[in-house]
UniProtKB/TrEMBL annotation:
The protein, known as: Histidine phosphatase family protein
InterPro entries: His_Pase_superF_clade-1, His_PPase_superfam
Domain of life: Bacteria
């Protein structure tokens, strides 16, 4: 008799309702990051087809409102929601010249690159620490899948990507790569 395969689903939250339009000063880009953390999300329609909604009794999620709201929209009120700070997004802080006014991505991309290089991590988690946290999160999801056959996480783009990498290193196979787009669902199996 063949043993059924274990599955893990990594889901990115829905699009936050916060505007990225226009030019931002450094202070405005920093405020955008704060607003993004607490923003509501847009409605999700239609429901993704490859998510096993009837099998999911518990979903892990980030402590951030956008992840919790997405989990509820996708999986309903009756599913047990397990919030854990381990599943929060990789931290970020804006780096740059305070007098400049630039598109938001011009603040975010260099700030993130410098963070990856270890040059923009003052008072926040380092990239090395964040990767270790993602590996720990992967182990947590493996334990859940081993016990219940399936594990579902609603979290964030960078975190999900590094959890996926940790799972692949541990022998899991990507069946569906949802990428880092909003409500992107990555399905892995072992």
């Amino acid at each position: 008799m063949r043993k059924s395969k274990l599955r893990i689903y990594l889901i990115r939250h829905a699009r936050p309702l916060v505007s990225r339009e226009g030019l931002f000063s450094k202070a405005q880009a920093e405020q955008y990051l704060k607003d993004y953390q607490v923003a509501e999300v847009e409605q999700i329609l239609p429901q993704p087809g490859h998510l096993p909604l009837t099998q999911v009794k518990k979903v892990f999620c980030s402590i951030m409102p956008r992840a919790k709201a997405t989990a509820r929209m996708l999986l309903g009120e009756e599913v047990e929601l397990v919030e854990d700070a381990m599943f929060r997004e990789f931290e970020n802080r804006i780096w740059g010249l305070p007098w400049a006014k630039l598109p938001l991505s011009w603040w975010q991309v260099p700030s993130r690159i410098l963070w990856f290089l270890g040059l923009n991590q003052k008072e926040i988690e380092s990239f090395r620490e964040a990767r270790a946290r993602a590996a720990q999160a992967a182990e947590h999801l493996i334990a859940e899948a081993t016990q219940n056959g399936v594990a579902v996480l609603v979290a964030h783009g960078f975190l999900n990507e590094f959890i996926k990498r940790a799972l692949v290193k541990r022998g899991w196979h990507v069946l569906v790569n949802g990428g880092r787009g909003y409500v992107g669902i990555t399905q892995l199996e072992k």
